[in-house]
Amino acid sequence: MKRIHSIDFTRGLVMVIMALDHVRDMMHVDSVSQSPTNLQTTTPELFFTRWITYLCAPTFVFLSGVSAYISFKRTSDIGAARLFLLSRGIWLIVLEFTVVNFGLWFDFHFSTLIMEVICAIGFGLVVLSLLLKFHPRNIAIAGLIIIFGHNLLQGISFPNNPVLSFFASVLFSLNFFSVTPNFGFLVGYPLIPWLGITLVGYGCGQLFELSPGKRKKIFLQIGGLALLLFVIIRFTNIYGDPIKWSTQKNMIFTFLSFMNFTKYPPSLLFDLATLGITFLTLSFAEGISNRVSKFFIVYGKVPLFYFIVHMYLIHISMFVMLFMQGFGVKDFQFGPLQFGRPAAPSGIGLPAIYAVWIAVILVLYPLCKWYGKYKQQHRDNKWLRYL
């Protein structure tokens, strides 16, 4: 199968959006002291800045499943396909706890290890490598069962058994484990809820074998249905997310409450809303070819390269900001859950966050374009498939 532009466009779009979240997280004046989704302290602008980036992780994970299906269909050798998915999955897990973690914390002591989206994708590929003999429809059904049912398991805990508690958290729930005074392990992306999205993505890979016109219609229908289910289930306020919505001080904040759902781990409502938008974006992207679409495709063709480089670029930009604000190296704080921000107030406001975000995207454009061409010109180099 040839490269599918709607995949590259959708992935590139959310990658550009992702950089906004990481710039905000590292450089916003209030990012250390408050949550942008806390309705008691946030503003609509800050809430939306965070909320729009919710689209990124589920889209990455979903499209990793789609890409796994396409990779499998490119070869008739199930053994070769299994080996590639297995090795790539393990490689992503290794990258998560080395290159990616250092890019996030800039801590040579690795005082904090965090399990995030790259690890979740890697785990999903490892599992898929073991399921290639099953029909994609059955794999998708298994994924849907996880997505619709895993919220029932969120309350499971083993407070009296630290080993079981650790593994239960790794599989199902957000948690921070203070292993020693100087080392902690943060489960940010529990594996099972994200695995469900990967499996659904793999099952949906079959849809990309259809003609662009048929895909466009089907993606529109799936996206609309997912968003309709989100509204219905959310309105009942019974199931689908541990955060209930409620009437707030005005209509705007009541709407924010309605849209305020759980990412860690991704709830059913989170999945329906974000993946619904993903399907609508895929539908929109089918058959479109212009300067705007080509701009986003540049990023979408080199997702892992972009992810790693943008993380380091943003973190370096944070230190430049701190130096400009009068801080020195002695003020930087590293350790468990710290990535260099001083104890004293620091950071920039939301308008400046957007300016830095745009600058980061523009700086990365020629790098991504160069690397995309390099990969295309050296297709015989199998190692490039891993970056």
Task: Kindly describe this structure.
This protein has one domain (5-386). The protein has helices at 5-27, 44-51, 56-73, 78-105, 117-129, 136-149, 162-172, 191-204, 212-236, 251-259, 268-285, 291-300, 303-324, 350-377; strands at residues 112-115, 175-180, 183-187, 333-335, 338-340. The model has no long low-confidence stretch (mean pLDDT 93). The strands form two sheets. It has a three-stranded mixed sheet with strand order 1-3-2. It has 387 residues and is mainly α. The protein is globular, with a radius of gyration of 21 Å.
What's the helix and strand layout?
Layout lengths: L4 H23 L16 H8 L4 H18 L4 H28 L6 E4 L1 H13 L6 H14 L12 H11 L2 E6 L2 E5 L3 H14 L7 H25 L14 H9 L8 H18 L5 H10 L2 H22 L8 E3 L2 E3 L9 H28 L10
Parallel strand pairs: 1-3
Antiparallel strand pairs: 2-3, 4-5
Helix pairs in contact: 1-3, 1-11, 1-12, 1-13, 1-14, 3-5, 3-8, 3-11, 4-5, 4-13, 5-8, 6-8, 9-11, 13-14
Rg of Cα set = 21 Å
What topology, given as strand order, has the largest sheet? Answer: 1-3-2
- State the distance separating the first and last CA atoms: 20 Å
Strands, count: 5
Structural class: mainly alpha
What's the total helix number? 14
Q: What number is the mean pLDDT?
A: 93
- What percentage of the residues does DSSP assign to strands (E)? 5-15%
Can you tell me the residue ranges where pLDDT is under 50 for at least 5 consecutive residues? none
What's the quick description here?
The two termini are 20 Å apart. It contains 14 helices and 5 strands.
